[in-house]
Amino acid sequence: MLPKGLRLGLQVFAAVICTYWFALTTPFQQIIITLKAIHLPKLLIEETMLMYRFIFIFIDAFEQIYRAQKLRLGYSTFRLSLHSAGILAKMLFEQVIINYEAMVHALDAKLYTGEFK
Known about the structure:
mainly alpha, 2 domains, extended
């Protein structure tokens, strides 16, 4: 099972890297035009818009937390690096949830009805 697990893990890692590369190198307007051109449902296009925005929220939160830990010498030893990585994962999850809630409140304030114009 170990070779199959490693292969699956490598495929998942490659898929995530490809997704981030695509999101970071392709202008969002072109992505939306392409999705509309292949006649995807509006719900899927809107979901893509929200996920695209959320990727950058995730990256920004990661950079802020990592920079704060690095400035406090959180990665000076191997043991401290493991501890800091655990805290980074926990704080990143919490920060993403907080940012998601803020995004939901912003959409509610803009009277979002489930469809972007």
